[in-house]
Amino acid sequence: MPLSSLKIVGFKSFAEPTTLEFTQGVTGIVGPNGSGKSNITEAVRWAMGEQSAKGLRGERMSDVIFAGTQLRPALNLAEVTLNFDNRDRALKMDQDTLVVTRKIFRNGDSEFYINKKACRLKDITNLFLDSGLGKASFSIISQGQVEAIFNSRPEDRRTIIEETAGVHQYKIQKDAALQK
Ligand code: ATP
Ligand code: MG
Question: Which family does it belong to (predicted)?
Fold first, then answer.
C-alpha cells in the first residue's frame, strides 16, 4: 500500500503549499541541516494520527503550524494530506485510493477527513492500527528511536512485536471491554 503523494500546507517549516510525489521504489530526501527533512516524516506521522506534541518536538499541538520568520508572517492553519494507493486492499476500505487529511487551527481546533469526509481522529488511528503503519509502529523511525528500541523494557519490546504481528489491536479492544 504505497504512499503515492503528500501535500503539506503551513506545517512547520512548510509555509508554501508543497506536494511530494512518490514513485515506485525507494525515495531519498536530502538537504542541509534544518532544511525540513524530519518535518516531512513528522507531517506523515501527524496526518496518520500522532497525538503527542512532544513526539513532534513541540510543546502544544498547535506548535506544528508555521510560526513565521522575519520575512513571512505566521500562518493560522496547518494541513497535511496523504494519498495512499490501496489497490492491494492493505487498508480495510473498499477503495483504490485513500486520502487522509488532518488540519489544525491556531485556536487548537482540529479537523480530520477520510476521502474528504469529515471523521474522528479515532477513525484514522483505527484505519492504520492493524496495517503495520500505526502511529506506534516502526514503519517510521525517527532520529534517536533505534537507541530507544535497544534500551526499551521487555514489555515495551513485546508491544512493538505485537503491533507488527497485527495482534495489538485485539489487545486494545480486550482491555477496553474489560474496563466496561
Ligand atoms: P537535520 O539534518 O539536522 O536532521 P532536518 O532537515 O531534519 O535537519 P528539520 O528538523 O526537519 O530539519 O527542520 C527544522 C527546521 O524547521 C528549523 O529551521 C525550524 O526552525 C523549522 N521549524 C520547526 N517548526 C516550525 C514552525 N512551527 N514554524 C516554522 N518553522 C519551523
Ligand atoms: Mg532531521
Answer: Belongs to the SMC family.
Q: Is 34 annotated as a binding residue?
A: yes
* Cβ atoms < 10 Å from Cβ of 81: 19
Do 29 and 98 sit in the same domain of this protein?
yes
Name the residue with higher pLDDT: 82 or 136. Answer: 82
Handedness of CA 144, 110, 102, 30 (dihedral sign): negative
pLDDT higher than 80, residue 29:
yes
Instruction: Say if ligand 1 is within 6 A of residue 78 CB.
Output: no
Instruction: Using the predicted structure, report yes or no on whether residue 133 has a pLDDT greater than 90.
Output: no
Q: Is the same domain home to 103 and 150?
A: no
CA 39 to centroid of ligand 1, rounded, Å: 6
The domain in which residue 120 lies consists of 3-128
Higher-pLDDT residue of 151 and 110 is 110
For residue 39 and ligand 1, the question of a CB distance below 6 A is answered with yes
Domain co-membership, 157 together with 101: no
pTM: predicted TM-score of the whole model, two decimal places: 0.85
Relative to the alpha carbon of 31, which ligand is closest?
1
Mean pLDDT of 135-163: 78
| C-alpha of residue 13 to centroid of ligand 1, in Å | 6
Residues 135 and 127: their CA atoms lie apart, in Å, by 11
